[in-house]
Amino acid sequence: MSKRLLSGVKPSGRPHVGNYLGAMRQFVDLATTHESYVFIADYHALNTLQDPVALRSNILDLVLDYLAIGLDPTKVTLFKQSDVPEHTELCWIFNTITTMPYLMRAHAFKDAEAKNKDLNVGTFDYPMLMAADILLYSPDLIPVGADQKQHVEFARDTAEKFNRIYGDTFKLPEAYIPTDVATIPGTDGQKMSKSYGNTIPLFGTDEEIRKAGMGIITDSTGTTDPKDPDVCNVFALHKYFSTDTLIDLDARYRAGTIGYKESKEILVDNLIRFVTPLRERRASLAENMTTVKDILREGGIKARAVASVKMKAVRERVGVTV
Fold first, then answer.
1. How far is CA 264 from CA 172, 240, 256, 259, 315, in A?
2. C-alpha span between 116 and 99 (Å, rounded)
3. In a domain, 175, yes or no
4. 197 in the Ramachandran plot: left (φ > 0), alpha (ψ -120 to 50) or beta?
5. pLDDT tens across 219-233, in order?
6. CA–CA dist 59, 67 (Å, integer)
């Protein structure tokens, strides 16, 4: 029996190249060897997005994005968190065994608190809903970025505590962090993130991709001076999109026979070449939204069949089944 994989994606805007390299393509690749569940984390999105029109649009956009990059709904259960009410039910049960000091350790809470934000309860309780998201499906692997490893640790802690109190119920999941894409640099050298405004859009127009790519920050090394590819923000992306010429580019960097402008132009051309078929596939899928919605609905039915079995066992364990 193949191992089970699960991951959730928040519908908070259009994906960028970092999202694709760090997570999205992993789901496609791993679906060939794992029983895979990928959910749209729409309830998590409510913490920051209270616009129903925008949220509906974001949800459908995200489904289109995943189908466009090659996610196969016959191999992957793609569903919406809100279509499986067991997620929020289990979250409440986890709340009853979780202390406030423990939740105050969460990175998201501490970051928001440091910015003096008016925190809502959803932001504070985010780790418990995420623990429920994960543990309902007894997954073996959770693909996450290096900065999200704590979410899996919270899920493991919660599973261990529940098992200690009520008996063996939950499997302890493992974080899966591909070492070659642990952190994807943005145009300013920081981690590529919408919050930093340093992204290259995955389904952007040629003009958008060109503008972002040519805007990547580099140092002041002259065109004919030797350069270190290992510390160059442009070369860091060449590793993923210029694989056929990577050895030659590395040599030219070290020999001082390529300037940053030419390097960026090569990267941009390769990015556009990569994105174009994805963009075309997405446009074709968007012409039949009924099919897209059916995929999401059918995925919800499959996911709930799994979640309901686990939730039945949980209710029996805690004593609410009479």
1. 44, 14, 15, 9, 57
2. 22
3. yes
4. left
5. 999 999 999 999 999
6. 13
Question: Tokens 């440091």 correspond to what residue?
Answer: 114
The answer to whether residue 302 sits within a structural domain is: yes
Count of the separate structural domains present in the chain: 2
pLDDT digits (tens, 9 = 90+) for 6-32: 999 999 888 999 989 888 888 888 998
Bridge partners for 142 per DSSP = 175
The pTM of the full predicted model, rounded to 2 decimals, is: 0.90
Q: What residue numbers bound the domain in which 222 lies?
A: 203-282
In this structure, are 67 and 211 located in the same domain?
Answer: no
Give, rounded to a whole angstrom, the gap between the first and last alpha carbons of the chain.
Answer: 34
90 and 116 part of one domain: yes
Residues 159 and 212 reside in one and the same domain = no
93-101: which pairs have CB atoms within 8 A and are 24 or more residues apart? 93/314, 93/318, 94/128, 94/131, 94/132, 94/158, 94/162, 95/125, 95/128, 97/158, 97/161, 97/162, 97/165, 98/128, 98/158, 98/161
| Together in a domain, 126 and 21 | yes
- Residue with the larger pLDDT of the pair 275 and 179: 275
Judge if 278 and 298 occupy the same domain: no
Task: Identify whether 191 is part of a domain.
Answer: no
Tell how strand 35-40 and strand 4-9 pair up: parallel
197 within domain boundaries:
no
In contact, 143 and 27? CB cutoff 8 Å: yes
245-297: per-residue pLDDT in tens? 999 999 999 999 999 999 999 999 999 999 999 999 999 999 999 999 999 99
Residues 175, 266, single domain; the answer is no
**Pair 202, 275: CB distance under 8 Å:** yes
What dihedral angle (degrees, nearest 10) is formed by the CA atoms of 99, 105, 107, 109?
50
Identify the pLDDT of residue 180. Answer: 63
